[in-house]
Amino acid sequence: MTPTTQKRASFRFSPVAAGCAVLLVAASAAQAQQAVDNVVVTGIRAAIESAISTKKNADSIVEAISAEDIGKLPDTTVAESISRLPGVTAQRSAVTGRAQGVSVRGMSPDFNGGLLNGREQASTASNRGVEFDQFPAELLSSVVVYKTADASLAGQGLSSTIDLQTVRPLNFAKRNVVVSARGESMGKAENQPGFGTGSGDRYSVSYIDQFADRTVGVALGFVKSKSNGGGRPNFNTWGGWVADVDYQGQKVKAPGGFTTDIETINSDRTGAMAVLQYKPNKDFESTVDFFHSKGNFSVQKRGLEGPVGGLSAGGYDSGGVLTNATIVNGIAQSGTFSNFRGVIRNHNEDYTDTLNSLGWATKFKAADWRMKTDLSYSKVVKDSVRFETTAGLPGSVNNPLDTISFSGFNGNNLANVAYKTGLNYADPNIIKLTNPQGWGGGTQDGYYAAPSNTDSIKSARLSGGRDVNLGPIVSADIGLIYSDRAKTRTTQEGALLLNTPGAYAALAIPGATTGVGGLTGIPTLNWNPAGSLGSAYKLSPWTEHDIISKNWGVNEKVTTAYVKGDIDSKIMDKAVRGNVGLQMIHTNQSTSGYRVDQASCDGATHSCGYAPVTGGTSYNDFLPSLNLVTDLGNDNVLRFGLGRVLARPNMEDMKATRDFSLDTTTGVPMLKGSGGNPNLQPFRADTIDLSWEKYFGKKGYFSIAGYYKDLKTYILKRSQVFDFANYITPGTVLPAGGSTVGLLTQASNGTGGSINGIEMALNVPFSMASSALDGFGVVVNTSLNNSSVTLPASGFSTSGVNTTNIPLPGLSKQVTNLRLYYEKSGLQLSVAARKRSDFLGSIADYQDNTQLVYIKGETQVDAQASYEFTQGQAKGLTLLVQGINLTNAEFAQYDAKTGNTTDRKKFGPAMMFGASYKF
Predict the structure, then answer these.
(1) Radius of gyration over every alpha carbon of the chain, rounded to an integer in angstroms
(2) 783-838 pLDDT, tens per residue?
(3) Burial grade of 898 (CB within 10 A; 0-12, 13-18, 19 or more)
(4) In angstroms, rounded to a whole number, what is the distance separating the alpha carbons of residues 123 and 530?
(5) Model-level pTM?
(6) Partners of 186 in the β-ladder
């Protein structure tokens, strides 16, 4: 693939940058007149100073977050905390509305390396991106985001390497115990019938202690959270479809169709952390740590869908005729369609994910060598169940009263059109469990799917280092890391059939209640289908070719040898430190899947013949890296990074599956198919980074950084000439002449392009400008990202994308974060906002497939207030109130070609009230 080079967007001077400059000048002037106060700080300022110290003392370009206190990161999830760092943002979950995936420097979450205490972690998704909302913030002490390569880092990513860190108990001077409890109230997402408030609670306890004359340390943590969400709206406009319909001898535009639900989300998560640390002397230390997280989610969707603009969407639907319309400039602003066959949706989507991570690291001295061993195991299992049921009018005869009227349409505001039906969709005498549209020839009354993902990583590491005298290199490290990763995905799917005979099967809805059809407000019948398999439905398992292709496995064995030298020297009387290194990586991958010759498929029984197939390859990578840091004087630091980095392919793209058939729709009949690529190799890039940082003691800093990534290889799906000879069966239908050569669409490696950007950050207390502002401070950063990469949309799984080319997935042109805070005498106040521009994001569709969709830019505002009693009988008690998504920012998808909103969700603001006690 050769990307098309676009004209690069120029970086414009923004108000944020102007604010940074003004505050920087003021702070510098004030600092020149003040001495650094030797005072003990806590809370927000202590966390900020700890993070600044990590950033300042690092040899690489890093960003860091430290807990404000034991078990207290700034946010409830790690993803939210990370997303406030310079050059970092988050994609919210389309299900919960909370931050989930983390994008760094304009690249999708799959380009990050995700670590826990320096060890690579398994992932619940079908790709590699770590879902950081699995890590409760109370169980972590800090997070470090490495933006440049380091030869000693395992599992590095192409955009960054994110290392989550738990506490080390021997780093504390005494025993610490913290207990906390919070209640949550989730406000209405929409102020109309059907949308209520939700509630939840969150409990945590942390225990840190030292024994045996401080040679043994123990840390334990436990978190339990539960949430019962109120109704949250979802409105889908069928890809922003505007229909051209006949009206009085002319073509006019009208809404095409809609799907709208009220989604109720019930969830709970249990997290636990344990650390045992043994350090009898300065030359020996051994630490065992364990992390556990288990979440249960239930999403209930209750809504209504149907074609509006005269479309026939099923075997029982003859389409409607527009009447009583108001036409303005060729647009039907209002009107009525006959023969409307609405489909009431009562769907359940439930899943459970379980993460277990165990590690044992030992450091010791052997003669002049500093040795380290590290054994680790990480495993994630995610089991899902999707239950889709439909209700409406039984049979194939249209009811003359079944009409739908619309109003308020201006040609593109599809998500805001008002609808009204002629029939009462909440009348149990006429509305039944059935197949209202006649899908599947009337043989499908619902759908069932139970996908499961399992991912595990076993790893061992041995390394050693010693002081050397090799010119500027004063210390050398060598190491060997071996990891064995296995990921599998399986699914069972099929049609739900009502336990009643007949072509137009129908059944009274068990325990039906009156609800509303999503944002339409139209009354509908609701019920809970959980447990109805057997009582109301029977399952007809399907082995369609696309279902079989969802079953696959990947095994990856990676051996990494590295050498690294620490630099401590001078250049032109300026102290220079840093490191230089090389990783030599050997990868051996084997994959499995299934061969599906569609000539064996029987459409009547939804079954195909299939057989297992395997594949694999091996390859080598050499990743050099260089990090240099020089002190320019007066706390001015200049950093330079250079290296080669990689991101391994999505594991689903590596499956060995071959799904093919004879295509006779083109001028020359030939075999065509799709599948994975067992020989797929990583994304690779050469990177260069430059950063200038001005520190104000340990209190604050200003930084400006630039980066450039030259993508040497990229991965996309495209059709290539392929010989299917090894996959032919006796029943395969071949073209005339018997040629087995055709076209296979699969992921493949091609040439890349470039990504570049500028990041600016300011983190200062206002007391540096005036003592009258003591306690106030600001953390603000902005990043401008640009890429020359454009990719053919046909090479990706996209939903509602009707453009020929797409931009780099995950890229927001601009990302800005702001946090204003006040902390003094136990009182803490903070308001935070994070903003990102439009981007191409990744979501899971209704078939459990990952899809790329255009997501509108958003600004989310959060706030927090707390008070800690520092004396008296209540000493150690902290009262807290926290507001999340206070402006009710919606999650909206759009059509890049027309600008029309295709899907919108609002989750409502959430408020948390609680208390913690430290002793």
Answers:
(1) 29
(2) 999 988 777 666 566 655 666 777 777 788 899 999 999 999 999 999 999 999 98
(3) middle
(4) 28
(5) 0.88
(6) 198, 910
